[in-house]
Amino acid sequence: MHPPVAVAGEKNIMKVAELAGILGGKWQGDGQREIRGVAALQNAGPDDLAFVEGDRPLGLADACPAGCILVAEGAPFPGHTTIEVKHPKLAFIRAVEALLPPAETAAGIHPTAIIAPGAHLAKDVSVGPYVVIERGVKVGKGTRLGAGVCLGEGVQVGTQCVLFPRVVVYPGVHIGDRVILHAGVVVGSDGFGYVLAEGRYQKFPQLGQVIIGDDVEIGSNSTIDRGSLGTTSIGQGTKLDNLVHVAHNVHIGKHCVIAAQTGISGSVEIGEQAVIGGQVGVGDHVRIEGGTIIGSQAGILPGKIVRRGLFVWGTPARPLAEFKRMYAHLAHLPELARKVKELSRRISGESR
Amino acid sequence: MHPPVAVAGEKNIMKVAELAGILGGKWQGDGQREIRGVAALQNAGPDDLAFVEGDRPLGLADACPAGCILVAEGAPFPGHTTIEVKHPKLAFIRAVEALLPPAETAAGIHPTAIIAPGAHLAKDVSVGPYVVIERGVKVGKGTRLGAGVCLGEGVQVGTQCVLFPRVVVYPGVHIGDRVILHAGVVVGSDGFGYVLAEGRYQKFPQLGQVIIGDDVEIGSNSTIDRGSLGTTSIGQGTKLDNLVHVAHNVHIGKHCVIAAQTGISGSVEIGEQAVIGGQVGVGDHVRIEGGTIIGSQAGILPGKIVRRGLFVWGTPARPLAEFKRMYAHLAHLPELARKVKELSRRISGESR
Amino acid sequence: MHPPVAVAGEKNIMKVAELAGILGGKWQGDGQREIRGVAALQNAGPDDLAFVEGDRPLGLADACPAGCILVAEGAPFPGHTTIEVKHPKLAFIRAVEALLPPAETAAGIHPTAIIAPGAHLAKDVSVGPYVVIERGVKVGKGTRLGAGVCLGEGVQVGTQCVLFPRVVVYPGVHIGDRVILHAGVVVGSDGFGYVLAEGRYQKFPQLGQVIIGDDVEIGSNSTIDRGSLGTTSIGQGTKLDNLVHVAHNVHIGKHCVIAAQTGISGSVEIGEQAVIGGQVGVGDHVRIEGGTIIGSQAGILPGKIVRRGLFVWGTPARPLAEFKRMYAHLAHLPELARKVKELSRRISGESR
User: Fold this and answer.
1) What is the ipTM of this complex?
2) What would the pLDDT profile of B16-26 be if each residue is shown by its tens digit?
């Protein structure tokens, strides 16, 4: 069918021993048991594969009727059929790929798609109904465009991408390979730049570009503005949740994660492997160095630098330990005030 | 016409006595006066019905030229035409239904709608232009799908629902009866789940479902993610405002209200009749028990439990009274610091 | 082509002297140099026009190979080709208009646009593919509607507007002249109003209107709710960033700026020339007087009045100086607590 689907396609049935072979793990128990699906440990039935991470849900696993459980090496579960692997959660991802391969989207262009002359689509792309593709667009091999996707003039989309329905990409945006854009995402809209002159806000030119790296995923209804004169860029492997806002001229490094509803103001630089919580606000011209963690709802003041590897929280954001210490004292503030009153009374009494 | 409309259809003209009959109220004044519209008390003209709640806007009502005012029982307004009812605001809702019935949307399927073979639409649904309906979709009686709505494979929509233009529903989502989804809502997109391994974020399967209960309303451009392995659910009668984010595996109880731009992280459980303000952030695995009130912009830390009936505020959230006390002391902190300095000086003086 | 484009059209080539004439400025250096583009100072090449504001990036400008630099009057750059103007950034906007005029969008109605009988479109509008226009709609001269835009019954759009792809305008909304609505914007959706009665939330009628003034710009995926009984209005020249939420019955004055992800609750009044940061939350029935500045992430409690010209910050918001003083003391709270403990010890010692 034409639009991208999120659900699995045909289910494969695999024996435990077979799965263990694929995952490079060591099975124990009933190697001939047939696995037909996957589930969370607490919901898994006798046909399902589940996984435990570390030693956490031991009690749960004991009673679990799962057909097979992926466990960490050296943490066997006597009495259960298990596969020991190095990284159970990662092995679970691989197992899902084997058991529940994503539905194939037939290549082809829906007759209602409107494709400007001069646009270049690789032979096996899938273009859904009511897609609009402007002049000069290039779409790579294996990419799927959901219903109503709109690609502006000169947009380039790499290979094996999935653009879900109603994604809008403004002219000139470059999108890498294996990028996933969820429904309603807008990439390349004008940045928020005005000059206050003669009593009114006059629009500053928003002529720049957006470059989205390979393996980026962007959640539903998030918005990424184009650079004003330069470029907005999102590095390879970075993941954005839903309703995230990225302003003009922002540069986000590789392999970052940014949770829902966070807003990144203009000209912010974010290094590699930053982890940013939800509803964080980052002021303009902030520099967040690599490996940083920013707690949810934190606010970074404009122009600040967050040093490599720090964990910051609060508004204005400060190092977590400092914030926690401050906050603990804050909770005892009523008590402290009482104490000061009491001291004051005693001293006055003594002074009399 | 084809797409859902928000404005009223034909206006009915009703006499005050007639309206009183419908509303089960007691009229006073001019029972033959004709009412043709409704308005807020401060804007109501001689043809309009208005309402007062409690005793609040008495002064206003005194001067109000409204054709008729709905008032609480035992709170008559001598000199005005009124209808006494138990609950004036509720009666006003009923009166609007009588005076300004919503425009009928003619049943029928716009010729540009693309409906996969095997989709099952009840006979009197209304399907707007450029709607895309995939395989296995079921749509119930009286439901209206606005322009460009996209229903993924296997989606089920109940009876008498209204999906405004550009709503996107990913495959497999179940939607109850009388559900209203405003423009741009996305239901069923992938949750934000990755495993950091081998230096990059690897996508965790997002194979679960979304179940939306009866009488749910979701505001414009809100996003609801599917469960990863399990289900995301929103209980009957719950109302979400605009730009709300609901992550994977969240369960929201019945009859909750969640104001605009609030974000609910993964695996959160919310009980019945919770009231959650705007821009609230709820960390993952939080449990919010029934009847709870959460003040706007509050932040609930991951894993916390908010006990039944509490009113909490702040980040990290704490009981309102505690927060207010703390905050009052915070405002006097400069003064407290001065006092301590003064005490310190006095003691040092005495010690000398 | 049919949908609005954000990129520039044909490039003009202009000599420095020519540009100086257009900008009413005084050139120095090589008046015959040809300028073919524009760039930020740090990226400008020998064919580009750049600008400096005040004295800030002097060091940068010294080494800059820009073809021509716009500088403030009385701040010449010996050794560079410059144009002295009153307001370099504003002059830069004008220069861009001259050098890179926006691409012409050919007037015309795409054959796939669905236009109800009785809709009135001025002769030179541009209507993209899959646009849906309902009964009674009026669209003014020179307005461009991007792909998939949906205008509900009775909507009025003024002249020279740009509605980017997938904008949804609910019935009855009035939009002024030269308004820009970015992709995914929703105008006129139902406000969040319910009456809790008989154990469930009953929808309060949302019958009002939205009026958008001239020269308003609204960022991607922002949502503007219609009035419940009255009107929601956004004043002339006001600019909203991405993912902003404006609730029912809100009135925003002229020439305000509201940054990304800010939420304005019901019945809020905002005066002229307010400047509101990102992720601000404004409670219902708040009055923000003209000329106010509200710092990012601030929260204004319901019913509050923010007086003319104040700069407020924090949640609950207070005047900036007060907030800063409080916050400075907060940072020293651990120290203060230690001091009190020490005092307490000394006094107890002396008392013994």
Assistant:
1) 0.94
2) 999 999 999 99
